[in-house]
Structure formats: structure tokens, C-alpha cells
Design goal:
Blueprint: E1 9-20, E2 24-25, E3 31-32, E4 40-43, H1 45-59, H2 76-86, H3 100-113, H4 115-120, E5 121-125, E6 129-134, E7 137-139, E8 142-147, E9 151-157, H5 163-166, E10 172-190, H6 192-198, H7 202-214, E11 226-237, H8 246-251, E12 253-257, E13 270-274, E14 283-287
Antiparallel strand pairs: 1-10, 1-11, 2-3, 4-8, 5-6, 7-10, 8-10, 9-10, 11-14, 12-13
Helix pairs in contact: 1-7, 2-3
Length: 290
């Protein structure tokens, strides 16, 4: 097993959307998610994790240690049984093995086998119990820099659904919801202390950065429009516990809209800056997409 990371990190990712829906809200007819009090757009941490998982599944397909736990069509109890089968144990209903070493071995297997478990953690206390772990990588909700406009676009289809429909019409009408343009800011945290418990290594961390940079290139759909990662700013601490409060580092990353008199329509309408003078000693700034 590779050595877990030894440095705490925080990061800020900027990504944008053009004529698409970055994260639909099923409680609002799949409209783009918004903060109802400010009309700023939101993208959930779950949506970003899904894209990271999909990217890892593509680039590491079949490689030991990089299986994906939460993926489309997966049955979680079947995933859990892999640990018991590997360790020649018989699972008890909703219980871990009574022997603490065996119980830890079951959870350890899941961390070693599944990239997303040792990265984001997982609650595996189902019928086939593999315990639970808190992942070293935690994400907040992404929020748009400016309020967004949820634009509803009417679309047509020249083919009808049934023979009965064909007698009265020759096309179908539908709607799709888009954001004309928005720049989103996502903040995240990487704990070296929690990495020790899951085995999250420097190789895993490099894969996380790679996924955040490239995930939208492998997640294209008509509904999401054009999305891209624009800038990834990483703050790497010199120690496991960290050398500065996370909020102070986040405050050093500032965004300015260049022409507030007109609505933004591209990344060029913004300036993203990092106040290096405000970065405390013991923290290294890595600008990966600057």
C-alpha cells in the first residue's frame, strides 16, 4: 500500500457553463439549482463527485485499486461481499465481524479496492456491513460568481410518439432549461489525518487534480451545454495539521467582473487573482490551470 499523503491541502476550482444546465434540481422541474434568496447558481458536491468518479472509471478501467464503489447500476451489497469473499469470511446480517482485526480488515479492503471510498469516504452499514469511513476529500457546493438566469427554451421534434398522435399532429414540443453563461467557484478540503485512515496517497491526490481539470471533457451532453474547468488553485500546507486557516486561504482568491454594465458571457469577462502577499508562511500555492 502506498504511503498516505503527508500534507493538508485546500483548493479552489473555477468552472463555467455556456448554454447548459450544470445541475438540475429534481424538486423544481429540473431547473438549474439556485440559491432562492440571491439567485446565485448552485452545483452540489454530489454532482462534482459523480464526474470525478466517472473520469477515474474511464482512465483507470480495470486497474487494481481503482474500482468505483458508487457507479451506475451497482448493487452496494454485492460490492460489500467482495471484501468478505477475499477474506474468506461469512457476513452476518447488518453486523461487522466480532473480531476487531477482521472488522478492520473488511473496511480496509474496501478502501484499498475502491478509489472513491478512500477519497470521499462511504457509509457501508447495509445488510452486508463493511463499516464506514470518513474520506479525506470533502467538497462544498459550487456557487456562481453572479446571479444566474434560468432560461427556458422551447424545442421541437419532427417525429411524434404514437400512431394516434400522428393523426392530429406532425411534431412534438418540449422544453429545456439553460443558463446562458455562468462562472462557478468550488472550494474543497483534503485532510492528511483522514488520509492515514483510508490510505489516500499522493498518487490518488494527483489523480484527483487530473479529474477536476478534465472531468467535463468526458461528461458531454446536450443538456449540460459547454462546460469547462478554468482554473484550479491548490494550497498545500507544509504539515499534516496545516499552517493557516482554510478561510484565510480562500479569501486570497478573488474574482472581479471586468464590465459590470453588461451580463457576463465568457470566462474572459472575469479576472481571477490570487493574493500571494496574503499567503502565510508554510503554505505553497500551486496554480494548476492558471
Amino acid at each position: 500500500m502506498a504511503q498516505p499523503i503527508q500534507h493538508r491541502c485546500e483548493f479552489v476550482l473555477f468552472f463555467d457553463v455556456e448554454n447548459g444546465n450544470p445541475n438540475g434540481d429534481p424538486d423544481a422541474g429540473n431547473l438549474p439549482r439556485i440559491d432562492p434568496e440571491t439567485s446565485h447558481g448552485l452545483v452540489t458536491d454530489v454532482a462534482i463527485k459523480r464526474k470525478v468518479r466517472n473520469y477515474v472509471e474511464i482512465v483507470k478501467a480495470g486497474e487494481p485499486g481503482y474500482d468505483i464503489y458508487v457507479r451506475e447500476g451497482a448493487v452496494l451489497n454485492a460490492q460489500h461481499r467482495k471484501a468478505y469473499e477475499r477474506l474468506n469470511l461469512e457476513p452476518e446480517d447488518k453486523k461487522l465481524p466480532k473480531d476487531e482485526d477482521k472488522a478492520w480488515a473488511v473496511t480496509r479492503f474496501m478502501c484499498d479496492a475502491f478509489y472513491d471510498i478512500r477519497t470521499f469516504g462511504a457509509v457501508m452499514t447495509t445488510k452486508v456491513n463493511c463499516g464506514q469511513v470518513r474520506g479525506p476529500v470533502q467538497l462544498g457546493f459550487a456557487r456562481s460568481i453572479d446571479p444566474i438566469v434560468q432560461h427556458e427554451v422551447t424545442i421541437t421534434r419532427v417525429a411524434v410518439t404514437s400512431e394516434e398522435d400522428a393523426a392530429s399532429k406532425n411534431r412534438e414540443m418540449g422544453r429545456k432549461h439553460i443558463v446562458p453563461y455562468a462562472l462557478y467557484r468550488l472550494e474543497g478540503f483534503v485532510s492528511a489525518s483522514l488520509a492515514e485512515k483510508t490510505g489516500f496517497s499522493n498518487k490518488d491526490l494527483d489523480l484527483l487534480w487530473e479529474a477536476l481539470e478534465n472531468m467535463f471533457d468526458h461528461d458531454r451532453s446536450a443538456s449540460r451545454g459547454k462546460m469547462a474547468s478554468r482554473r484550479l488553485v491548490v494550497f498545500q500546507h507544509a504539515s499534516k495539521l496545516g499552517n493557516a486557516p482554510a478561510q484565510k486561504l480562500f479569501d486570497a482568491v478573488r474574482v472581479t467582473r471586468l464590465d459590470p454594465s453588461r451580463p457576463p458571457r465568457s470566462y474572459a469577462d472575469y479576472r481571477v487573482e490570487v493574493d500571494l502577499a496574503g499567503i502565510p508562511e508554510g503554505v505553497t500555492v500551486i496554480d494548476r490551470l492558471g
